[in-house]
Amino acid sequence: MRNIFTAAALTLFFAFSAFAQRQAEVMVTSTYLRKTPDYNAEKLQTLQKGDKVIFLQGGSGANGWAYVSNADGTVKGWVLSNTIQTLKNTEKIQNPNPATQKATPTPTPTVNPNVSPSPTPEATPETPENDNEVLKIDTEEVSLNVRVINNSNRPVGNLKESAFKVYEDGVLQPITSVSVAEVPIFNALVIDNSRSLRSQLAKVVEAGKIIVGTNKPQDEAAVVRFVSGDKIQVVQEFTSNKAMIDNALDNLFVEGGQTAIIDAVYRAAEMVQKYQNSQKKEDVKLRTLILVTDGDDRGSDFTEKLLFELLRNSYVQIYAIGFTNNLSDTPDAETGISRRQKAQAFLTRLAQETGGKVYFPDSIEQLGKIALEISSELRTQYVVSYAPTNDKRDGSFRKIKVEVTDDANKEKRTAITRSGRNAAVDK
């Protein structure tokens, strides 16, 4: 008699299991279904945000991975648990494999009135959460614009995902995707119009036209001129019309005032970040700010601290061209740092913090070559995305480092990206 009840209970258990699988929805903009629970494993299918996956038995909690199938059950594999979220009040669904949908009929046990029946064991599905429970994992996906250069400082293209490693605060992160697809570029040309750049302005305008001249139909550019804090002017809003941009560059002029570089970069970075901002992966843009100045700030209201806090929360790359040769090399009596050293340090930090690049031309004649180099580098970048393992939403700063493998001849490759990010904060 005990065997009959046991058989009945087991039959109920397997029948329940076939119908107790839960659906989940992909949360990040895209992720991969992989052959084994390892982010370097073979990719079986790309899952986009909103796609449905089905939890399968035998694959819960394997070092942060879950064993799932796609919505129609044709592809099964592993996905990072923190890139999906269970759906609330999901209906129970059958096993996607039709061959396993038929449950064995439950036999009717014969009951002996003189024998107390053994208690029926509770059916415990392999996945512990019930169908109406929401697994609350509100994760981010961080996307980085990454440049890769070789020993000759030349861009390196055609790298596979396996060549990249991303570290956040020294911890290796799970990469969700690496894209080399060309994306539209939004450039803001931010040009110092103070009297210190009077002799360079004609060449600066020429260089700006070279950069804009390489724009493709989907690219857009804007022109911002600045002197003091009250003389920061968007002379041309974002447009793909090259003639309008060239006309704005031709109409730049110098005037007096206390140069406010920090204020100008702050306001321009805000403008670039907000323009047509979309979190969808298909809408991704490369947002850059090309700054031309001598780097000698004399009248900003914003502090460097506020500026870099803004930049850490944006995805704007800064390419800085600094004409610092005419600045004083005499050390300051209090700091021991000259105006030239201070300007170069500031411009270098702008580039390094945002994954851009800084140039200090020896002569104005180098501007044309620099403009072509900037245009070329903007076309050879990778978008590397990862799901942070540290899910604390405390607004703290997280250091970021990207590494790439050397080439077949052991030539060193260097990945250049933003220095870090501020974590999200719960609202």
Shape: elongated
- Sheet with the most strands, sense and barrel status: 6 strands, mixed
Which structural class best describes the helix and strand composition? Answer: alpha+beta
Question: Mean pLDDT score, rounded?
Answer: 80
What does this structure look like?
With 427 residues, the protein is an alpha+beta fold. The chain folds into 3 domains: 2-100, SH3 type barrels (Roll), CATH 2.30.30.40; 142-180 and 383-422, no CATH class; 185-378, von Willebrand factor, type A domain (Rossmann fold, 3-Layer(aba) Sandwich). It is built from 7 helices and 21 strands. The chain has helices at 2-19, 201-213, 242-250, 261-274, 304-312, 339-354, 367-378, and strands at residues 23-26, 30-34, 43-48, 52-55, 65-70, 76-80, 84-86, 142-149, 164-168, 171-172, 175-179, 185-192, 220-226, 232-239, 286-293, 316-322, 357-359, 382-386, 397-404, 414-416, 420-422. The strands form 5 sheets. A 6-stranded mixed sheet has the order 14-13-12-15-16-17, sandwiched between helices. Strands 6-5-4-1-7 form a 5-stranded antiparallel sheet, with no helix packed on it. The longest helix has 18 residues, at 2-19. The chain starts with a helix and ends in a 5-residue tail after the last strand. The relative contact order is 0.15. Mean pLDDT is 80; it is low at 4-20 and 89-138.
Notable traits:
single chain; 427 residues; alpha+beta; SH3 type barrels; Rossmann fold; 3 domains; 6-stranded mixed beta sheet; 5-stranded antiparallel beta sheet; 7 helices; 21 strands; 21% helix
